[in-house]
Amino acid sequence: MTGPTGVGIGWRPEIAGFVAELPGLRFVEVVAESVPATGPLPVGLAALRERGVTVVPHGVRLSLGGAEPVDPARVAQLAAVARLVDAPLVSEHIAFVRAGGLEAGHLLPLPRTREAVDAVCANVDRAQAQLPVPIALEPVAALFDWPDDELDEAAFLTEILDRTGALLLLDVANVYANARNRGTDPIALLDRLPLERVAYAHVAGGAEHGGFYHDTHTDPVPAEVLDLLGELCARHRPPALLLERDGHYPPAATLRAELDALAAAAGFPVVT
């Protein structure tokens, strides 16, 4: 079983009809927690699977970066969805979403400390012991850095990947957002990441509010993110690219144009 290839899109019920009509679509990503572990699959997602489109479950609630051990029941649900869709891999975030029994409702960034590295690695190991397929880890967009950081982003991420053997889900929009908000060079980060570990890449839109660039998933993909995608592909082209959209869906022609722009940046066949 191989991983995703080509250009894909995040599957959402609101755009299921649009996604179903994309003739060259190779893969989709579905929020794992939105799929019942025992099935059945949503009709539109089941139809894609039947025509051979790869489906990648994308978790948002494991809290791999939490200080507490990852919940085995949540990992079991992710594993069940992976089996249900015959996924080649799953993905989750290097982040925490709960602490002390409280739910944040958001993917929160970790302090880049060695203690945090240990916590993430322990939870990834616990998850991998239950999962039937490899896991790809996604660094999140962050509006702030913790004051007790000990490692920079590249060193933090590389140590986690090296110790766990996990793959990398590289969100190009997150790289851009973090660099813009920190006043750093996104290309310098790309040059220090283990790009050979990238299983696939995310691309999404965003907007500036209150002096910060927010990774919204509801705005158009800016030219700067597409340029950064080109820089990534010049260094190591990911096997697959995924467009993330999570609301304020534009007309079909606009979505098609964004997918075509991703394909052009990476030299992939168009999906539309």
From TrEMBL:
Pfam families: MbnB_TglH_ChrH. PANTHER family: UPF0276 PROTEIN HI_1600. NCBIfam families: PRK05409.1 (NF003818). This is Uncharacterized protein.
